[in-house]
Automatic annotation (TrEMBL):
Protein family (similarity comment): Belongs to the peptidase M20 family.
Annotated GO MF terms: hydrolase activity
Record protein name field: Peptidase M20 dimerisation domain-containing protein
Keyword Lyase: no
Region (Disordered): 483-526
Domain Peptidase M20 dimerisation: 258-352
Coiled coil: none
Presence of the UniProt keyword Isomerase in the record: no
Organism: Prymnesium parvum
NCBIfam families hit by this protein: amidohydrolases
Keywords: Hydrolase
Pfam families: M20_dimer, Peptidase_M20
């Protein structure tokens, strides 16, 4: 059995003969208290903690379970500190500085192998044992994490590491994505000498995923130059903890913002017969647009058209001159996009003309569809089938959007989802946020990334790299993935814990009582 414990790291002294040169005993840390001491931003991570973890990991020899405890507990602590200091898109200067320092002092990547990209992003290379300090002529696999937070106010008032930047919050889990990739980097660099001489791993820390989009600026800044394959993941709170959801082809949608301006003729509310009422025209347009997807898009295709904003008028007794309607279109193919936008324009023009008004349509397409490549997706599925409990394509494609699509337009790769819901698990997990928070969907004001995902994502990244390069960096015993088993799943589908219902979202963080032990998944024998 193996579990990654948040509350403590086991004290273990080791003999010279078994593990080589002696090391200091493992640290003993109360992370619950540590997370309450949120330093000001820009902050420095706990240097003593990182030095101890780095010393424990070492550079060679068999990886001990307690070493993984140290690494993933430190990663969870870092994630929570990052959570407390969120920065929005293209303003991630403090986050960038922190990650750069971690990659140099903690992971051990030379400063010369790290560069800024797209302003506040970072590109870092871990090279194989070959000569030379560049990736030129090497096979390069890229791994990506997004960095930015949302311009939202966090509702977790009882959270010890709640956002200290009011109006900005990590409510999509990018703090956890960064922590996962940092842990991955530490494990990869520890065994960099085992990488083939003609191979390298590139770490992409990307700004502004939430908008206006940082992937394309990174591509324009040559982050994909020399890359052969690219992989990334997103936590997904509605999927059970540890499940891997992935498929080839489209997995996320192409979003388009639309704006319709209806121009009529204003007048007094008591005399509508001498006005051209844009409010009435807009109402007919909104209703008519509901038929676009159901009647114009083939049933085999997924699409969404939602009118989400209507603005017009200033006082209750005056018919305004104009009304603005805004909304979003989500599609998975250029053909469907053309069908929807053609119908939208025709309906708007027809409805406006029938009431003697004028209308203009403005379309603002955003990120392309995220479309996974077949070979790379099959490789991820094979890794998942060997190392995790459930691999599924359920829930895919999603109608949300992700600018990871720009990376996949440049090079083949795969974007996958790791479940974080603990709704059906007994008690509390070792590293994770409380269950009521880990079950909130992304962009919910009470969302908090489930730290149990960090070791799962990090080890999956390692196994994907091994699979694609045809190498073994860690044995299965050294690097097991901690996953819930059937014994951990309760029969109650409503998320009841053994002691009663879970607290409401946003409630103060309860102390763990009787945490579950996540069993490490041993690979299936072929």
């Amino acid at each position: 059995m193996h579990a990654y414990g948040l509350g403590r790291i086991r004290n273990r002294s080791r003999s010279h003969s078994e593990f080589g040169a002696p090391r200091r005993n493992k640290l003993s840390i109360n992370f619950a208290m540590q997370c309450r001491r949120v330093p000001p931003f820009p902050f420095q991570p706990d240097g003593a903690l990182l030095a101890e973890v780095k010393s424990a990991l070492g550079t060679d020899g068999k990886l001990d379970p307690a070493d993984l405890d140290a690494l993933f507990c430190a990663s969870a602590s870092l994630r929570r500190q990052i959570h407390a200091h969120p920065e929005p898109g293209f303003e991630e200067k403090g986050t960038q500085a922190l990650i750069r320092e971690l990659l140099i002092s903690f992971v051990g990547i030379p400063a010369s192998a790290i560069r800024s990209c797209a302003g506040t992003g970072l590109v870092a290379d871990i090279l194989g044992k070959g000569t030379g300090k560049s990736t030129e002529g090497r096979r390069v696999i890229a791994l990506r994490a997004d960095m930015d937070a949302l311009r939202m106010t966090e509702g977790n008032n009882g959270l010890p590491y709640r956002s200290s930047n009011e109006g900005v919050a990590h409510l999509c889990g990018h703090d956890g994505h960064m922590a996962s990739l940092i842990a991955t980097a530490a494990l990869l660099n520890r065994r960099a000498h085992l990488l083939p001489s003609d191979c390298a791993i590139r770490l992409l820390f990307q700004p502004a995923e939430e908008g206006p989009g940082g992937a394309k600026p990174m591509v324009d800044d040559k982050c994909m130059e020399g890359v052969d394959e690219v992989y990334g993941y997103h936590n997904w709170p509605s999927f059970p903890l540890g499940q891997l959801h992935v498929k080839a082809g489209a997995v996320m949608a192409h979003p388009t913002k639309f704006e319709i301006v209806v121009e009529g003729k204003g007048g007094h509310g008591s005399q509508p017969h001498v006005a051209v009422d844009p409010v009435l025209v807009s109402a007919h347009i909104v209703v008519a647009l509901q038929s676009v997807v159901s009647r114009a898009v083939p049933s085999k295709d997924q699409a969404v058209l939602s009118c989400t904003m209507i603005h017009g008028g200033e006082v209750n007794n005056v018919i305004p001159d104009s009304v603005t309607i805004c909304g979003t279109i989500r599609d998975l193919s250029p053909t469907v996009y053309t069908t929807i936008t053609d119908r939208l324009k025709a309906i708007v023009a027809g409805q406006a003309a029938s009431w003697g008004a004028k209308a203009t349509v403005h379309l603002h397409p955003a990120y392309p569809c995220v479309e996974n490549h077949v070979e790379q997706t099959e490789a991820v599925i094979a890794v998942g089938q060997k190392y995790v409990r459930v691999v599924s394509d359920e829930g895919l494609p999603m109608m949300g959007a992700e600018d990871f699509s720009y990376f996949l337009h440049e090079k083949p790769g795969c974007f996958f989802f790791i479940g974080g819901s603990e709704a059906t698990l007994r008690g509390w997990s070792q590293l994770g946020a409380p269950g009521q928070r880990s079950n909130c969907m992304c962009h919910n004001t009470a969302f908090d990334f489930n730290d149990n995902i960090i070791p799962i994502a990090s080890i999956l990244f390692i196994r994907i790299v091994e699979s694609r390069l045809g190498i073994s960096l860690y044995s299965d015993d050294e690097l097991p993935i901690p996953l819930p088993t059937d014994e951990d799943v309760c029969d109650n589908p409503d998320g009841m814990s053994e002691s009663g219902p879970l607290p409401e979202a946003g409630a103060p963080t309860p102390q763990p009582t009787g945490p579950i032990v996540l069993k490490s998944k041993r690979p299936r024998k072929e």
